[in-house]
Amino acid sequence: MSKYLIAEISNMHLGDINEAKRLILSAKNAGADAVKGQAFDPDDIAKVGSMPLAFYEQCALLDEEIRELINFGADHEISIFFTILSPSKSWIAFHQRWQKIFANKWNTITDGRAIDSPDFIVSMNQLRHVPLKSAQILCATEYLKPINMELYDDLFEFYERPIGISHHNIMMNDLFSLINSGREIPIIEKHFQHGKPINFGGALYRDCMHAATPESFEHLAKIYKG
What we know:
CATH topology: TIM Barrel
Number of strands: 10
CATH class: Alpha Beta
CATH superfamily: Aldolase class I
Low-confidence stretches: none
Helix content: 25-40%
Number of helices: 7
Strand order of the largest sheet: 3-2-1-8-7-6-5-4
Largest sheet: 8 strands, parallel
Number of domains: 1
CATH architecture: Alpha-Beta Barrel
Strand content: 15-25%
Mean pLDDT: 92
């Protein structure tokens, strides 16, 4: 079984494309097979995100910057893709292999294909009876909480194939235990950051609370891939 490790940089770049490139190279050097960001219009993500609108206005990448980062990944032999969070960014699906969506959007079409294909990664935080036979499935942990092993095993039993994990806890002992349990885990997604957590106008960016540093991500990669 192949093992695929994704570094989720979300908005750790704060809208600076050079910092995004630094994060990409750092994640690759730490063992990532792919780096994922977020593509959105600020007004859309501010409705569901944890930060004020001004934060997302600063972090939103321009279309030409997104294209540049995808090409940057190709030049450096690491896959770059984005979770498409606004309809205006649907064009990105034509330029990236992987498409990640959430289970409650399972019946959408992003680039002319139904999501039940091997190039789609579907994230679930509860058992959803979604008829997926080919898509990659991730069990998404709740923020700052351990892996719900009952949910993980329920997903495995329902879909009758290995299930990946999107891990949102800074403590990774439960993730290491899962890796060492003998279960087949085709994909692990872990948030990734360089330095200290991002504080914007007194608000702590939630994604920093469970992100791995390059050192801890490299440790994860060694344990996961052996």
